[in-house]
Write a structure and sequence with these properties.
The complex is a heterodimer. Chain A is an alpha/beta fold. Chain A has one domain: 3-Layer(aba) Sandwich (Peroxisomal Thiolase, Chain A, domain 1), CATH 3.40.47. Helices cover 31% and strands 21% of the residues of chain A. Chain A contains 12 helices and 17 strands. In chain A, α2 crosses α6 and α9 packs across α10. The longest helix of chain A has 15 residues. Chain A is globular. Chain B is α+β, with helices and mostly antiparallel strands. Chain B is built from 9 helices and 8 strands. In chain B, β7 and β8 form a beta hairpin. The chains are: A alpha/beta, B alpha+beta. β6 of chain A pairs antiparallel with β3 of chain B.
Chain lengths: 400, 265
C-alpha cells in the first residue's frame, strides 16, 4: 500500500431526504431528525419506508441537455445547485483548465426508471419501446457522469463507478490515483442514486427491506429503508493556502469479500481488509480515528459482520453510528453522502447518533452511539460495502 | 508521471475470435476473419450452484480474465482488478423490467442480485478467492479507455499488477433497438509495473486529440465500431503483430487515447 498525498475537499454538498444542501443536512443531524416515510413512491405497493428527496420530479435540466432527462439526472441537477458547488466547479475548471478536471460519479441504478416506464408503454403489436425513450443518456450507468461533465463543460477523464453500494466511495480512490498520476489536477466526485422500482421490488424480493424505518444495530433490526441522494465533492491538490479547518481526504482502502453475491462475509473479513488498507494509505493507527460512520444498513447480517470487523481493529471504544436511520440507504450514493456527513462531523464537532435504534443488539460489540455527541472530531472513517462483496473505506480529517 | 506498464497475459473472446492465440493470427493477417456468433463457455471455475445462476456477462468476463491470468502465470487471488463494461447484463435487465411492467411485479431475487453492474467482478472474486480490490466502471462507448486509464493509473501510482477486463454483451429485444450491440466481446490483460519474464510488450498511454485508427479489414472495422470493448482492436493488432507502433483509440467526444507499444522479445 502506497501512501498518497492527501487531497482537499475544496467544495462539497449533499442532498437527501434529510435536507437540500449541507446546512439543512447538518440541522437534521443535529436534531436527530429522520427523513424516512411510509412508501408512497410512484405506483409502488410495498409495505416499507423510503427516503425521498422533495422536488426531484419538478426539477428541469438545461434545454440543450434535454436528452439526459430522467429522475436520476434531475436529482443530480437539484443537488449540484446547492452550497455554491456549481460555482466551485466552474472556478476549478477556469483555474486548472477544462481538460484537467475529471468527473467520477458512483451510481448503482442510474436512470433505469426510464426503462421501467418505457416497458409499460411498449407497442402492443411489435413490442417496441416508445420512440421517445433514450437508453444511453438516461438508463446507462455513465449517463449521470456524462450529464455532469457536459453541464459543467469539463473535458478531463470521466466515468461512472458502478459497484453497487460501494460505488460513490470508490470514486474517491479513482480521483486520487488520477490526480497523483498527473492526468488531472482536480476532480468532481460524487454519487447519485434515485428511487426506482428495480431496487424497491428487488430488495423486497430478497426480504432485505424493513417494514418500519430502518434501525441499524438494533436488536430488532429487520432490513434497509431505501433512500435517494446526490452528494458531491470537488477534490483538488492541496495548496499553501489550505485552511486548518479544511477537510482532507487522507486514505482510501478497497477490498473484495470473495464470499457471496448478496451476503457479506460472516466475520467481516473483506470489511476489515478495506479499513486496514485505508489506515495504511493514510499512515494512521486505529487510535487516530475519532468516529466511524458505519455502512450500517440495518440488515441483521451486515451489521453483525461490520461490527465484528470494526471491533477487531478499533476495539469496543471508538464511537460509531450509521446515519441510514435518518437518510435511508441511498445505495450507490451512500459513499459520497456519508463522506459529506463525515466532513460535516469534522467541521462541526458532531458525532451523529443513530436514529430509530432503540435497543442496541448486545451481541454487537462495536461502540454504537444513539445520542449525538459534541466533541472535537479530527479524523473520521466512513465505510461503504456492496453486493458482489465489494468494500471501500474512506478516511477524512482536518487539515490542521 | 508517465503511464507505463507491461502486458504479461492477454485474453480475448468475441464474434469469430475464440481466444487470444487464434485472434492474434487473424489480427496479424495470417488467417482470414470469419465473423461468427460468440461462443461462451460455461464458467467451470465457479461451483455448480453458482455456475447455473450466471448469465452471459459473467461467462464472458470470467473466460477472458482466466485466459489472461493463466497465460501470465499469476495467481489471480492476489491481483487487484479493473472491470469495465458499457452496460450491465442486458438479459437480466430485460427480465426485471418486463416483470415490473406486469401487475404482480414479481422480481426474482437471484436476478436482482445479479443485476448489479459489478456482477462479473463479484463472481470473479468468489471463483478465485481474491480479496484484492476490484473497481467496476462504465463510460458507455468510452468504457474501454476508461478502464485502461484506471488500470494504468493503478500501476503507476500504487505500483502493483492489475487485471484489466473490458467486456460487453448484447441487449435482447426490445432494448436491442435502442442499444444495438450485436454480440459479446471481452478482452482482458494482466498488466505489470515492471518487466517480467512473461512480458509481451511495454505500453505507454496518453490522451490525445488525434483521430482514432480504423481497422483495414472491413468486418473487423465493423466490429470495432459495434462493440465498445472492440475499440481496443487497433491496439490488439499491434500486440498481435509484435511490432513497435502507436495505436489511437476512441475515448470521449473530446479526446482519444494513444497507446505506444514496444514488444518485449
Amino acid at each position: 500500500m502506497i501512501h498518497l498525498r492527501p487531497l482537499v475537499l475544496s467544495e462539497f454538498t449533499a442532498t437527501s431526504c434529510i435536507g437540500k444542501g449541507v446546512a439543512a443536512t447538518l440541522a437534521s443531524l443535529a436534531a436527530q431528525r429522520s427523513g424516512l416515510k411510509h412508501c408512497d413512491f410512484e405506483t409502488v405497493k410495498i409495505d416499507t419506508h423510503i427516503g425521498e428527496v422533495a422536488g426531484v420530479d419538478a426539477q428541469r435540466l438545461p434545454e440543450n441537455l434535454g436528452v439526459f432527462d430522467c429522475r436520476n439526472n434531475r436529482l443530480a441537477e437539484l443537488a449540484v445547485r446547492e452550497d455554491g458547488f456549481a460555482d466551485g466547479v466552474a472556478s476549478a475548471a477556469a483555474h486548472w483548465g477544462r481538460r484537467r478536471v475529471g468527473v467520477f460519479i458512483g451510481t448503482s441504478t442510474s436512470g433505469i426508471m426510464q426503462t421501467e416506464l418505457a416497458y409499460r408503454a411498449r407497442d402492443p403489436e411489435s413490442g417496441a419501446l416508445p420512440r421517445s425513450f433514450e437508453y444511453g443518456t438516461t438508463h446507462n450507468s455513465f449517463s449521470v457522469a456524462d450529464y455532469l461533465r457536459r453541464r459543467f463543460g469539463l473535458e478531463g477523464p470521466a466515468l461512472a463507478v458502478s459497484s453497487a453500494c460501494a460505488s460513490s466511495a470508490k470514486v474517491f480512490g479513482t480521483a486520487r490515483r488520477m490526480i497523483e498520476a498527473g492526468l488531472i489536477d482536480a476532480a468532481m466526485v460524487g454519487g447519485v442514486d434515485s428511487l426506482c422500482l428495480t431496487t424497491l421490488y428487488g430488495f423486497h424480493s430478497l426480504q432485505l427491506s424493513s417494514l418500519a424505518p430502518c434501525r441499524p444495530f438494533d436488536i430488532a433490526r429487520d432490513g434497509i429503508s431505501i433512500g435517494e441522494a446526490g452528494a458531491f465533492a470537488l477534490l483538488e491538490r492541496i495548496s499553501d493556502q489550505v485552511r486548518s479547518d479544511s477537510v482532507l481526504l487522507y486514505g482510501v482502502g478497497e477490498s473484495s469479500d470473495a464470499y457471496h453475491m448478496s451476503a457479506p462475509h460472516p466475520e467481516g473479513l473483506g470489511a476489515k481488509r478495506a479499513m486496514l488498507a485505508a489506515l495504511a494509505a493514510a499512515s494512521m493507527e486505529p487510535g487516530d480515528i475519532d468516529y466511524i460512520n458505519l455502512h450500517g444498513t440495518g440488515t441483521p447480517s451486515n451489521d453483525r459482520s461490520e461490527s465484528q470487523a470494526v471491533t477487531s481493529i478499533f476495539g469496543p471504544t471508538t464511537p460509531c453510528s450509521s446515519t441510514k436511520g435518518a437518510t435511508g440507504h441511498t445505495l450507490g450514493a451512500a459513499g459520497a453522502l456519508e463522506a459529506v456527513i463525515s466532513a460535516l462531523s469534522i467541521q462541526n464537532g458532531l458525532m451523529p447518533g443513530g436514529v430509530h435504534t432503540s435497543r442496541i443488539d448486545p451481541t454487537l460489540t462495536a461502540h454504537y452511539i444513539k445520542e449525538n455527541r459534541r466533541a472535537p472530531v479530527r479524523r473520521v472513517l466512513s465505510n461503504s460495502f456492496g453486493f458482489g462483496g465489494t468494500n471501500c473505506s474512506l478516511i477524512l480529517g482536518r487539515a490542521g | 508521471m508517465r503511464l507505463v506498464g507491461y502486458i504479461d497475459g492477454i485474453g480475448l473472446l468475441g464474434p469469430g475470435l475464440n481466444n487470444w492465440l487464434q485472434a492474434a493470427e487473424i489480427l496479424r493477417g495470417a488467417k482470414a476473419y470469419l465473423p461468427a456468433p460468440t461462443v461462451l463457455p460455461a464458467p467451470t471455475m465457479l461451483p455448480p450452484a453458482e455456475r447455473r445462476r450466471t448469465g452471459r456477462v459473467v461467462k464472458l468476463a470470467l473466460t477472458v480474465a482466466l485466459e489472461a491470468t493463466s497465460s501470465a502465470g499469476v495467481d489471480p487471488a492476489q491481483v487487484p482488478s479493473v472491470f469495465s463494461s458499457s452496460g450491465g447484463d442486458g438479459h437480466i435487465c430485460h427480465e426485471i423490467c418486463q416483470a415490473l411492467a406486469l401487475p404482480a411485479r414479481e422480481v426474482s431475487p437471484t436476478r436482482f442480485s445479479n443485476s448489479v453492474h459489478n456482477v462479473a467482478a463479484g463472481y470473479w472474486s468468489i471463483a478465485t478467492g481474491s480479496m484484492a480490490a476490484s473497481n467496476v466502471l462504465c463510460a458507455f462507448d468510452a468504457s474501454y479507455i476508461a478502464g485502461l486509464l484506471e488500470a494504468m493509473t493503478q500501476i503507476a501510482v500504487e505500483g502493483h499488477e492489475v487485471l484489466f477486463v473490458a467486456y460487453d454483451t448484447e441487449y435482447p429485444p426490445p432494448l436491442h433497438a435502442k442499444r444495438p450491440i450485436p454480440d459479446a466481446l471481452g478482452v482482458a490483460m494482466l498488466m505489470n509495473p515492471d518487466r517480467t519474464p512473461k512480458s509481451v510488450a511495454r505500453i505507454e498511454v496518453a490522451l490525445t486529440d488525434e483521430t482514432a485508427d480504423r481497422m483495414q479489414e472491413p468486418n473487423l472495422e465493423a466490429l470495432r465500431t459495434a462493440i465498445p470493448a472492440a475499440r481496443s482492436l487497433p491496439f490488439l493488432q499491434l500486440l498481435a503483430k509484435g511490432t513497435d507502433g502507436r495505436a489511437i483509440l476512441d475515448y470521449l467526444d473530446v479526446s482519444r487515447a494513444a497507446v505506444q507499444v514496444e514488444p518485449c522479445s
